[in-house]
Hints:
By secondary structure, the chain is an alpha/beta fold. The protein has five helices and seven strands, in the order ββαβββββαααα. It has one domain (9-131): Collagenase (Catalytic Domain) (3-Layer(aba) Sandwich), CATH 3.40.390. The protein has helices at residues 21-31, 75-80, 84-103, 124-127, 133-162, and strands at residues 12-13, 18-20, 39-43, 47-51, 54-59, 61-63, 69-73. The two termini are 33 Å apart.
Amino acid sequence: MLAEQPMPPQAFYTPRGRWRAEKLLTYLKKIKPPNADFIIGITDEDISTTAHGYEDWGILGQAFVGGQVCICSTHRIRIKSHNEYQYNRRWEKLVLHEFAHAMGLSHCTNRQCIMRDAQGTINTLDEEETLCSSCTALLEQYYSITQCRKQRTAEITAQNNKYH
């Protein structure tokens, strides 16, 4: 767990008083320690990106697909949830959704899958429950490949250290 970081000033979008998600992701990628597999940035601030024909579209979260970083904001979930239970359920699903993007998953067409594209509404977080079997299989495949690479890298490093 990294210490709390200040929001990078270059990510602030003055006209709307929001923070640009893509700039926050670039910042997170820059500060990610080499030994960290992923970074999940968490903020209470309102974040946005360019989407749906709008230069500054408010969003819940964003990730670089397969890019090891994601940003999640409590702002819109907090103001649009009717109670603490709904807030917690939505927050859990949002973080899982963005983290799965950072791990390499794209949006899914299965309406029950947590990787379904919200298309500008928070209501999808009330409908989905978990990853569908296809997305689960993709993650398992990704992790199988990743673990093999890590193990092979460790073996090569150990072998190289013998000779130095």
